[in-house]
Structure formats: structure tokens, C-alpha cells
Amino acid sequence: MGIIEAVAGALTLLAYVLGWALLIVLAISIVVILISLLLLAYSFRTGHFLFPNLLVAGISFFESPLRAILRVLNVDDARMDLIAIRLKNRAMYPSFRKVPFERRAIFLPQCLRSTSCPAVLSPEGIKCRGCGACGISRAHEEAQRLGYMIFVVPGSSFIMRMIQKYRPDAIIGVGCTYEVRDGLDMMHRHRIPAIGVLLDRSGCVNTNVDWDRLFSVMNATGTQRAPDMDKYGLDSPEDLGGNYHPSR
Ligand code: SF4
Fold first, then answer.
1. 159-169, pLDDT tens digit by residue?
2. What is the pLDDT of residues 199-211, one digit of tens each?
3. Are 90 and 217 in contact (CB under 8 A)?
4. 110 and 60 in one domain?
5. Ligand 1 center–CA 165 separation, angstroms
């Protein structure tokens, strides 16, 4: 009888402690939600992104529960990815544009190359030969003009290797939704301001990106907002920039 009472007492205590722990987690979650919502509302109203790292952490924190809710509502996962990418881009953009060009790196996916690409693989990625059959040669020229580090990515581990080697202070990553989403999360974990630019046409070969939009992001500086940043919204087809035309 004594043992049963002791076990019952222990279980009651355990339930009591778990109940309190759950309440504390719930209270913390509500506080985090409220702070993040206030930050988001303030940032989007004023265009001043306070605590961008906290903002991105908040967006990441809500991503999984939001994704689950949206799935129940029959909303595509890709839609949620797109929203998360745009929010993270917006949150990181002010920090990104303060970084000098020569401390920024741009990573392009190799699927942007022409199928007749003569470039060869090197330890620094795929080395464009400037044949002009795809837009990468123009991106190289623009990167050289500004002083960017530029890489054509041959595989997923390559990006971290180059980041560890060259330690850039800001990143532009081009890719499909899935790659950009994971890339932004990875950069956030390393506290590097990163902007994701989505491909217009995804796939394994012959993909395409809006090069002018990309050049617009590349040219963004501490004093210059990307041209259509003000109208940039969740339903806009634009991510960042769009009106800038570099010298060709
Ligand atoms: S421009 Fe560069 S990357 Fe594009 S196809 Fe020519 S060599 Fe390859």
C-alpha cells in the first residue's frame, strides 16, 4: 500500500511539474509571438528593420507551425517557402547593403550555364570562360567591376567551403526555392546577412534568372534602396530590385 501511495504521489508531482513546464513554454511562446509580430509590424510599416537576426529567428520559429496550419488549409508548401524567403530577404536587406562590395560573395548555380558550356571544374568552382552563351559571363563582369567574389557552385558542400576560406560578410545566393530557403537558413546560422534571388525558370539545366534584378541587388549600397523596395510585398512577383540596368 505504501509503495502504491508513493508511486501515485510521484506521478502527481510529475504531472504537476510537467503542467507548469508546459504553461511556462506556452507563456514564452506567446511572448515570442507577440514580440515578433510587433517587430514585423513596425519593420514593415517603417522600413527600419530592428534586430534583423531576431526577426529572422522569429520567422524561422513560426515556419513549422505555420506550415502545418497552411497544409491543413490546403496551401502549398512552396507558397510558404516563398513567403519565408521574402520576409527573410526584407529583414536582412538593410544589413546586407551596408557591407562593402569587396566583402560580399555571390553564388550562382551551375544549372544557369548553357548546355554547350566550355567551362571547367576547379577547386574554386566552375570557372566561366566568358563565352557569352549564358548570363554568367555578364554576372562575372559586373562582379569584377564592383569587386565581388563570385562563384559558380558545383555542389552543395562547396558554398560552406568557400565561406570558410574567404569569410565574406554578406552573401547573395541564386537558386530554386528549395536551395534559397536552405541557403538563407544556413547563412542565418552563421550570422551572415544573405539575400536569396530566385530562379525564374528552375530545373537541372538551362535555368534562368532575372539578371537585371540580380544586378540591382548586387549594386545595392548603404545609401541606396533597391528601386522597388517600397512596393515590395508578399504578393509581388519581384523579390528585390528590378529597374536597374547595368552597363552591358
Ligand atoms: S558564359 Fe561562362 S558559364 Fe556561361 S556557357 Fe559560357 S563559359 Fe559557360
1. 999 999 999 99
2. 987 777 789 999 9
3. no
4. no
5. 24
